[in-house]
Amino acid sequence: MSDLDTRAGEYVLGLADAEEAAAIERDLARDPDLARAVAAWRERLLPLDAGADRVAPSPVLWERIHGSIGERPVAVQPPASTRRLADLWASLGFWRGFGFAGAAASLGLGLGLGAALLRPAPAPVVVAVLEAADRSPGAIVEAYADGSVLLRPLTDLPVPEGKILQVWTLWDRAVGPVPLGLLDAAHEARMNAAGQPVPRGQQLYEITLEPAGGSPTGKPTGPILLKGLATTPL
Fold first, then answer.
1. What does the alpha-carbon distance between residue 84 and residue 96 come to, in Å, rounded to a whole number?
2. According to the 3-state scheme, what is the secondary structure of 26-52?
3. Residues 77, 89: contact at Cβ < 8 Å?
């Protein structure tokens, strides 16, 4: 594994210290190889959560929970309303069971949330690194099978007053570029390309500078700020 690949992997895994992470983020704007390595690592690690099985609490853990509840002193005064309610207040078994049920519900909720977090996020069908005219990486596009497209800017894109950023894709030259969305500034955004063909390798993505409200023709009219061809993740 090259030093660049190791550096990108440590950054994506969160192993780089704060100083090194800041340096990598600065380098991403001017090092296309590093940007591609970071994008590859992000996609490579997406399926890892699928290998984690749901773990049920052991009988020993349940016993400890029950024991800690049972040993907890209960000091309550029966109200003066009904005899039934007074009996419940005075029943240690009732409160022990009530407390155990609450603890079990809390634990079950925690396990449910954990299982939800362990479910693997859907992987993009294609990824594109959009580059400026000087070949510096400016954004990463992730396109998914459900038609959603996630744009992750790597650098700032100045937007003059009265202008707007417009994102496009081109999968068929006979059809021409198709608009995906508008941005008033460079920021992470999810767009919808529902109804279009499933993204594929070598599909073009680009960002142009258009009049406020978007291109008046439905096709790019302004300068191309960033563009790149999609590749299939490893």
1. 17
2. HHHCCCHHHHHHHHHHHHHHHHHHHHC
3. yes
CA distance linking residue 53 with residue 64, whole number of Å: 23
Rounded to two decimals, what is the model's pTM? 0.51
Cβ pair 180, 168 in contact under 8 A: yes
Tell me whether residue 55 is exposed, middle or buried, using C-beta atoms within 10 angstroms of its C-beta: 0 to 12, 13 to 18, 19 or more.
exposed
Interstrand relation of 204-211 and 126-131 (parallel, antiparallel or unpaired): unpaired
Per-residue pLDDT tens over the stretch 158-216? 899 999 999 999 988 888 899 999 999 989 999 988 778 889 889 999 999 999 999 99
Cα 142 to Cα 67: distance, rounded to the nearest angstrom: 50
Q: What are phi and psi of 121, to 5 degrees?
A: -70, 145
Spatial distance between the Cα atoms of 134 and 226, rounded to a whole number of angstroms = 10
Rounding to the nearest 10 degrees, give the CA dihedral for residues 219, 221, 224, 230. 10
Which residue type does 16 have? A
The per-residue pLDDT for 79 is: 43
- The larger pLDDT score, comparing residue 231 to residue 67, is at 231
Return the sign of the alpha-carbon dihedral for residues 209, 213, 214, 215: negative
* 175 vs 160: CA distance, rounded Å: 30
N- to C-terminal Cα separation, the chain: 16
Averaged pLDDT, 127-148: 91
143, β-bridge pairs: 126, 149
Both tokens of residue 145? Answer: 């099978």
Q: Are 230 and 141 within 8 A, CB to CB?
A: yes
